[in-house]
Amino acid sequence: xxxxxxxxxxRFQRPLTRTETWVTLLALIxxxxxxxxxxxxxxxxxxxxxxxxxxxxxxxxxxMAVRRWHESRIALIGVTLVGFWLLVAVTVPYLPIADPNKPxxxxxxxxxxxxGMLFVLGSDVRGRDILxxxxxxxxxxxxxxxxxxxVAYGVGAGFGLVGGYLGGWWDELVSFVGNIFLxxxxxxLFILVLDVxxxxxxxxxxxxxxxxxxxxxxIVRGLALDARSRDYIQAAQTRGEHxxxxxxxxxxxxxRGPLIVDAxxxxxxTTVAITTLTFLGLGLQxxxxxxxxxxxxxxxxxxxxxxxxxxxVPSLAVSSLILGFNFTADGxxxxxxxx
Amino acid sequence: xxxxxxxxxxxxxxxxxxxxTLRRGEAHGLVGESGCGKSTVALAIMRFLGTAGRVVGGxxxxxxxxxxxxxxxxxxxxxxxxxxxxxxxxxxxxxxSMTVGAQLIEVPLCREGVRRREAxxxxxxxxxxxxxxxxxxxxxxxxxxxxxxxxxxxVIAMALLSNPEILLxxxxxxxxxxTVEAGIVxxxxxxxxxFGTAMLYISHNLGLVRETCDRITVMxxxxxxxxxxxxxxxxxxxxxxxxxLFAAIPTLGTDKTTHPLAAIPGTLPSPRARPxxxxxxxxxxxxxxxxxxxxxxxxxxxxxxxxxxxxxxxxSRCLRIGEIDWTAPVTAAAGRPAPVFGEVVLEVRxxxxxxxxxxxxxxxxxxxRQGETVAIVGESGCGKSTFARILxxxxxxxxxxxxxxxxxLSRRPVTRxxxxxxxxxxxxxxxxxxxxxxxxxxxxxxxxxxxxCGGERNExxxxxxxxxxxxxxxxxxxxxxxxxxxxxxxxKQRVGVARAFAGKPAVVVADEPLSALDVSVQAxxxxxxxxxxxxxGTTLLFISHDLSVVRYVSDRVVVxxxxxxxxxxxxxxxxxxxxxxxxxxxxxxxPIADQRFVKxxxxxxxxxxxxxxxxxxxxxxxxxxxxxxGTCDVSAPPVQQFAAxxxxxxxxxxxxxxxxxxxxxxxxxxx
Lengths: 339, 671
Known about the structure:
The complex is a heterodimer. Chain A is mainly alpha-helical. Chain A contains 14 helices and two strands; from the N terminus they run αααααββααααααααα. In chain A, a hairpin with a 2-residue loop joins β1 (112-114) and β2 (117-119). In chain A, α6 runs antiparallel to α7 (168-182), α12 packs parallel to α13 and α13 (291-301) runs antiparallel to α14 (309-338). By secondary structure, chain B is α/β, with parallel strands linked by helices. Chain B contains 21 helices and 27 strands. The longest helix of chain B is centred in the N-terminal third of the chain and has 18 residues, at 178-195. Classes of the chains: A mainly alpha, B alpha/beta.
């Protein structure tokens, strides 16, 4: 992982940096998780084994994150919350809990034994175990939320770089289209997209991209405008580099600091958006467990104080995840300002 | 007095055992390279050290009262009123959302509670005293509507309004152009005479300190290494560091062929790891092991005035004051052979560039030969960087031509140039902290140029060439694996040089490559640049505003003002009469650190006009001290030919130009 040059070797060109270790670990967690959640039917009998390596990877990533950010308490809290939900997401198929979709005993209060089974967080109107549904639910929120944010980032950063670096006519066009998207209230945009194209996970990604990408585009455009006048960019221009190389290799890595912070915050927004959409019945469809869905289904019953746990448990889950993202962002910003 | 900064890894001593006495009406210069603690001294006097800084020892007495034991309320009465500070950047010292007048009036209003009318009158009066004409208009303007020189004058006026006893000036002219700087320096000098204010003048420029101050303190690594009256220190310096600084700056006595600059070897020690004994020991040529590295060295008086409290005490922190031969010249390398020039490689003809209404370049015509260094000199806004951008193909010229080895380039952007053309034209950039991509290793950035411009495909050979280049710029090979942030400014600039020479270019454009570097580093990079240029036979276009460096580095000089060439010729011809009036003013603005020369005073009036609305006729006539009304403001000046290739664009009669007195004259130093 060290970047020291070994004379005679080729390591000076591509030392295995910390960044690459991070990318490898995240890919190890992310790809199986995405495959498991989005394409489970296609996987067939291999599905249960897919998530096995992701568990240790989450733990290693968590340890690395703690070692790197131990100076900021707030980042530690954030990373711990996010790390917990990630760990749950990759290990939930192996946990000894009830089937989240199987009706057992309806309306069991928390911490009660019924029919020889312990309902730690009780059961819902249809008799499904709330603990199991909450833990399974985090998979969908995490996978769709993070994927949607990542896609929005790809699109937004791409257009932002084009607008900010190339400038001129490109900038006018990109900014104009971005402004049109920004002029819609976010909810209207969501409802429009999901109503026209029908509710599904992929359309959620599209909806989130439509609402977030223009904002990301503006951030990246501003950063690129600032970085464009740097001498190292001019040096690349004077040696005749292709604009794509300059944008992706010379420019993008040097504006990553503020972008990472914004990405953490945006993950929080996206989680809220997805949960809201499912709550409105526009997002992911039943019966698979999902926090927004759980809140929606619990809403009528929770009018009675006795059944309010059905609402409180998934709400706390959503809040803790969003809080985790926001704390991480705050901590990263704090540390970036320190040095 | 000692100051430490607290950090996560314990205290960092920034200033150690520093003493300074400032008398009424005295100007004291504080000189040293970046990181030596000179700004910390000023901040400690103001007690503005922030949350991390702390004065850990000693006392700061102001009229016998210790500033360190004062309460916040007592301090507030002294800060601003009795001790005022002026910072480097005038723009950030002024509130951009208030008019200048409102900001000036605030001072007497808050400090003395006078009536508004009187405060207004005092502000106007003060603006006149800092020589700002048209006080009424300036009072109504916002800071951004004024030029840098005007802003700095306003900051000075604001500081003087409270009639302070001590004025702390932290590099007040560094952000300004040379001719503007000369005006401010002149003003500062007259302030101490007129107001009787004591001044602490912090600067990295020895020449400026010599021109403004009565006494000087040279700082190195948090210690005052030499203290004394200006004349005594400049005539007979008694510390190896001071002597090293003098040998590192290009003065009128240096010359790249016969008297090269001597850089101080090594680098400034980290404040955490100061060497034992003499802090300068590891870099000193007169170092004696066992003596200089045992006990901390105290300041010792020199000569008969060995009384520590004497007003004109000259003292040095060197153990071997009596042993070193101070008259021996510091010679680094022997001289170089005189340069040999080849064919003309770069031909610029009538090059013009308009940005809408702004005329950035107007009819530039000059040549550069193989192996020659051509300097393009001028103040900000003169169009020298625009020319570099046209040459590099980043912008297209409006008209005219640039021919590089017979190939027309003025309207061919870099994307449409052939690989060979791109390779033969490379650039060194100004800001060392900006010239390298911070997220890629040094080695990979040099290798990229070799791959791109050298046309090399074999990875082993690319790496071999990369290591050769690092050797060429005298950097250790293990720098290749490091990130730019792990390098010092000088090292980064060396990498910038290595990168520019990677493709064996025919022409290298260096845009102010030295201006952001410290004096001793500057000397090392300058020598390196000249050596590599000689070795490779490269043509160097050296863009700079610093005439003393230009005089040292270049073979030919092109002087530009507002997009036009005022004068061009061989360096020796340009630096001797006949001068263009603008060159004359530029030369007179060079701060001279060499006691053996005296300088004639030429002060320019007014500010550089905006390039979007250049004056008719001769561009320079608004500020020229020789202007002929009715001629200069009507028609463009003719180009007059003097010595071979020495051309001056001026209306003045030939006889008048030829009768000009030289700006510098040697004087007898025996007195």
